[in-house]
Amino acid sequence: MNKQLDTITRRIIERSANSRQAYLQRMDEMRGDGPLRGGLSCSNLAHGFAACGEQDKQSLKLTEAANIGIVNAYNDMLSAHQPLGEFPDLIKRAAHAVGCTAQVAGGVPAMCDGVTQGTAGMELSLFSRDIIAGATAIALSHNMFDGALCLGVCDKIVPGLLIGALSFGHLPVIFAPAGPMTSGLSNKEKAAVRQLYAEGKVGREELLEAESQAYHGEGTCTFYGTANSNQMLMEVMGLHVPGAAFENPGTALREQLTVAAAERLCKITALGNAYTPMAKVVDEKCIVNAIVALLATGGSTNHAIHWIAVARTAGIIVDWQDFSELSAITPLIARVYPNGSADVNHFHAAGGTAFAIRTLLDNGLLHEDVTTVWGEGLRHYTREARLAQGRLSHVEGASASADTEVLRPADAPFAAEGGLRLLEGNLGRSVIKVSAVAAEHRVVEAPARVFSEQEELRAAFEAGELDCDVVAVVRFQGPRANGMPELHKLTPYLGVLQDRGHQVALVTDGRMSGASGKVPAAIHLSPEALEDGPIAKIRDGDVIRLDADSGALDALVPADEWRERSLSPRPGHHSDYGTGRELFAFMRRAVSGAEAGATVF
Fold it and tell me: Exposed end of the chain (fewer CB within 10 Å): N or C?
């Protein structure tokens, strides 16, 4: 075991002692109250199985066989979630085959950041995570279920399902994804067309054709953004059937992975001898493993928010200092777009999650002594899923990468550290992902140009006002201001300026995404402008220094002047209403800061 990893983990355990104990006590109390259906009144129980077939009714009356609650994020607009429409029937058949039952406990909303990017709908995106958590709790509140099977893939959906399911941590819970779409137009080619469009060198028709070739079928987008980072983390947390993350939809193996999830869940309920409650699986070591895997693979910056919220639900307190210190000892072992040219299908073919987990374990960078839904110990997840006579089997995963341009061993990595760093200074605290930022762009010192809406930056770019060294400051984008939308639409404009030879950086109290790329971006800046954060003091022309190497973010303004400078008020805006935003006002008022998980809980 890496000594620093052990030290950081012990610090988290000590910090979380009281809150973790309180969480586990609540889960013990909930187990005492259920979920055995025998505790329900006859009327309650009759309502719970009224629409079932006779065979299921008899099983549910006896209360001796497990009943699985399916929480489904299906809709047929999201390519990643469209395959989930067929999963419930498959799961029910699998449960019947082992003498158990399954019911769709409820659905949760699933919105797509790819569709809402740069629009008003994006201001609902982060809050959808907590709505999903609440919807998951509603689905499981009927006390009819001995375990839960959560179906979801994308950005806020998996963290929301996790938070909701952890509130029922006395139940065993398994996550079953649908897998990534097959590879289309390469991410590098897609990004090139986007940048040409930003420069006005190609039209909308060419742009739409490129996007359509990249996003062309069912399954998750193939770049290594938040959705695919979710799946990596579910593997290393031991909440998947091993090898479930990146098998494409519609294959026989994908079907058997889902069957195996249902069968396994039936075996690990409190009715059997292998009871594995979620509260036991998701502990401090599990959370540290998730962060390490995220950093080692160059995953999404969104998880610097989401996994803080997830951990706190389980009584575990982590912060950006933990992320930064873990990043410093975690080698970067994967190059998947935007940190490279490959997509997740290439990553999977090169050895995928099994190789990544194996090499991190072998180098003492993951905790092996954890509980998983597949049994004790993380080594279960170094095995690959295969078909044997039409049924799922597991074989030893690759001991060497099949493509070292995509995936490397931890003792011969692409970089010595994971690349997610904490920035601090007179502007507050923020995070930056540098795994895709070239070394020569990691220190930027340039005049600020201040914007209060991302649309203002686009207009300034098109007017030629940004053709110079510039730190684009985009403020009033925090969770309290407008729900903290991702600002990924800004990347092509800033990328063009960088390619022209300018020093360019972004500083914002908003979010970027798993697609954060080559332009250095100090994101999630806290406190946010609407909470009197120092970002509200910045004026056009102030020189800003972003130093990702030393971890500094400062406005180079004389200290006396900076201390006395007033905060700029928020200009007129339209984030309070339209596209349903008025319904989320209570969440904007209640939400915590980014480093506390940007959550209303």
Answer: N
Q: How far is CA 19 from CA 285, 312, 593, in A?
A: 16, 8, 19
Q: What percent of the chain has pLDDT over 90?
A: 80
pLDDT of residue 557: 98
Enter the tokens of residue 54. 């006779």
* Contacting residues for 204 by C-beta, under 8 A, at least 6 apart: 197
* Listed residue (179, 183, 345) closest to 254, CA to CA: 179
The DSSP element (H or E) to which 106 belongs, if any, is: strand 101-107
118: nearest Cα among 495, 591, 599, 510? 510
What pLDDT, on a 0 to 100 scale, did the predictor assign at position 72?
Answer: 98
**In 3-state terms, what secondary structure has residue 173?**
strand
Is-cis flag, bond preceding 180, omega within 30? Answer: no
Give the other-Cβ count within 10 Å of 12's Cβ. Answer: 22
SS (H, E, C) 208-221: HHHHHHHCCCCCEC
Q: At what angle do helices 303-313 and 226-236 cross, to 10 degrees?
A: 40
User: With contact defined as beta carbons under 8 Å apart, do 151 and 231 qualify?
Assistant: no
Q: For residue 119, how many other CB atoms are within 10 A of its CB?
A: 11
Radius of gyration of the chain (CA): 24
CA distances from 502 to 69, 343, 518, 542, 558 (A): 55, 29, 13, 17, 25
| H or E segment to which residue 505 belongs | strand 504-508
Helix axes 454-462, 491-499, angle to 10 degrees: 40
pLDDT digits (tens, 9 = 90+) for 536-576: 999 999 999 999 999 999 999 999 999 999 999 998 877 88
Question: CA–CA separation, 474 vs 573, rounded Å?
Answer: 14
Average pLDDT, stretch 333-354?
A: 92
- Is 38 a residue whose pLDDT tops 90? no
Place of tokens 């509980």: 371
pLDDT band at 586 (very low <50, low <70, confident <90, very high): very high
Tokens of 390: 């039409």
Residue 168: is its pLDDT beyond 60?
yes
Contacts of 406 (CB under 8 A, 6+ apart): 334, 335, 336, 340, 342, 346, 347, 350
Q: Would the pLDDT of 50 be above 90?
A: no
**What pLDDT, on the 0 to 100 scale, is given for residue 49?**
85
pTM metric for this prediction = 0.94
Distances (CA, A) of 569 to 145, 380, 529, 572: 51, 54, 9, 9
Q: Where are the alpha helices (DSSP H) in 199-302?
A: 204-214, 226-236, 252-267, 278-281, 284-296
Three-state DSSP string of 389-406: CCEEEEEECCCCCCCCCC
Per DSSP, 175 falls in state E
Q: Do residues 318 and 205 make contact, with C-beta atoms less than 8 angstroms apart? A: no
Q: Which of 277, 239, 246, 266 is nearest to 150 (CA)?
A: 239
Which residues partner with 150 through β-bridges? Answer: 71, 175
Residue 198 pLDDT exceeds 80: no
Give the mean model confidence (pLDDT) for residues 42-65. Answer: 83
Strands 470-474 and 443-451: parallel
Answer yes or no: is pLDDT of 241 > 60: yes
User: What rounded mean pLDDT belongs to the chain?
Assistant: 93
Cβ atoms within 10 Å, residue 470: 24
